[in-house]
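User: Teach me something about this protein's shape.
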Amino acid sequence: MSAEATEHTALGRRRGLPRIDLRNIRRFSRTAVLGPASRGRLPDAIEHVAKVHRAHHPGADLDVLRQAYVLAESSHRGQMRKSGEPYITHPLAVTLILAELGAETTTLTASLLHDTVEDTEVTLDQVGEQFGAEVRYLVDGVTKLEKVDYGAAAEPETFRKMLVATGNDVRVMSIKLADRLHNMRTLGVMRPEKQARIAKVTRDVLIPLAERLGVQALKTELEDLVFAILHPDEYVRARELILAHADRPDPLARVAEEVRGVLQEAGITAEVTVRPRHFLSVHRVRVKRGELSGFDLGRLLVLVAEDADCYAVLGELHTCFTPVIAEFKDFVAVPKFNLYQSLHTAVAGPDGRIAEVLIRTHQMHRVAEAGVVALGNPYAPGTGDGGADGQDAERVDPTRPGWLSRLLDWQRATPDPDAFWSSLRDDLAQDREITVFRADGGTLGLPAGASCVDAAYAEHGEAAHACIGARVNGRLVGLGTVLRDGDTLQLLMARDAAASGPSRDWLDHARTPAARIAIEGWLAAHPGAAEGPAADVPSTGRPAAPGPAGRAPREAGAVADDPAAAVRLAGCCTPVPPDAVTGFTVRGGAVTVHRQECPAVARMTAAGRQPVGVRWRDQHSGPVGTDYRVTVCAEAFSRPHLLADLTEAIAAEGVAVISAAVEPPHEQRVRHTYTLQLPDADRLQHLMRAMRRVPGVYDVTRPGRRMAAAGS
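Assistant: First, the predicted structure itself:
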């Protein structure tokens, strides 16, 4: 495996690949056993690490690295890896990987020591005393991850702990990813079945996490190593395809030269190189396009100094070549969820061959390759609110991506490890994210396929329980509407959040763990939600604005013959005074009140359920402060803006819309079903008259009971 990986890198370098080289590791096998150098001088084993580190951080204090190496080497002395090499070669290799990525000194120090507490007599307190609280914190985070077996039964709790540690400091995950990369490089000494098990865990969780942390240099090599283990035949075919083109003239090199000439004439200073695809990428392109040519084995990379230069390059390329408009993506103006920024385009030459082009600044390129690792120490003075000096304060990481904050929120709300593991895998499987613009000008990052329900919980957390609808690009839509990249979203919230709650229907539209967990938590705390109006609104069409349902009013407005019984109004028929009503006992001894003509009454009576006597507290409006939920159906001739006009008429009566559903038009007629919250029961007749006055509406009824003309 290591030899093949090295061969691939050599091919990439011959073709001008400006990719971080993470594989120059084996020199440590010999130098690591030489022991530390004399006091004050860097040991030979970390001299190369120090050189690489100084290239990224010229003013770095190397003495702390010398001290960390001395402690690690003396602690691991006598320990051997399964490959037969001295154990110290492993932390050295991990540290070099991170140094190549541009990690700062604190991360490298913790990396050298990351196995000392787990595998030697060194304690966390000793690490803290010699290297400070911040290094102690990082070593402790990595150690906690290493203590849990990666067996199938332990996986859920393993990655819960991993996320918790990562959430407090993304550098913990950076060390863990580098640790896994070196272990994957040396996986050949293990049994095939163990190789496959570790490769699957790497594929399912660690590679997606590397993608989300933006560490592409780690991700791509991990993908190739996993690809070789789990799909050896496809790996060999991809490798042979790359080797077959290695000694041929590279057609992209000719295009790169033409691009250099175009940019030079335009006075744009730029570095233009050919960036070969890695093995798995070649395989994916081959599956998508079939037979490949040299143009398909790489992309052009154009590096410039400033953001504005990116667009200047784009303009020149689209002027001098034929652009493939469908291939254009602007990740500079709207960065991806993992901090990635770049312009993507494709151009066709005179011969019709298409070359893909990436345009970015040098800083964008560093972040694209190293992700959060390239952003330095988030707790250094002036870069964040946290720090080693305030151990009890909340660690605030300014580099933590929004998706990670969301994962941490819902992992805390999911006590069941298996449910957490399932949700984690589902979330990580979302490899594409969309950007939605909020009404206030902000943005939301959501996985592709997310609905307005997901957006509500991403923006408002548990306060989204009070969401009653949404406008997308200015149009009123249902909360189940799937959002697209670039949509503008305005969420509509109920005025009385305390009387609101989600419907079970929302679960059908929730794609994110955060939304599903919040909804399921609310429904579990309010078992009556299953009988809520939104779950029982008759509709064969797409919901226009499914909203909160199921929570009993502040006062039920009715009493049962048993004065000690709790009473709630049924969501299926939404009774209000002066409806004739009856009741049935449900779980927990509560009594649910139904209208007598409700179909549920006939079903429960036929099943042998005994009715319970109930009556309204006041035959007209109930006690002061009572809210009533009621369902009404509007029959109308289909026309544009009907939903908006009906909603405005309802709002003008001081009535809140809890949910709405619109059936598909039939013979130019349409039915709108609304669940509404009335401030008092007497308002119902006024409301229905107002709805009938909306142009095109020819009748307004309540399900199960046809209402006469206005005033009946």
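Now, about its shape. The two ends are 82 Å apart (CA to CA). The longest strand covers residues 628-637. If you'd like, I can walk through any region in more detail.
User: That's plenty for now, thanks!
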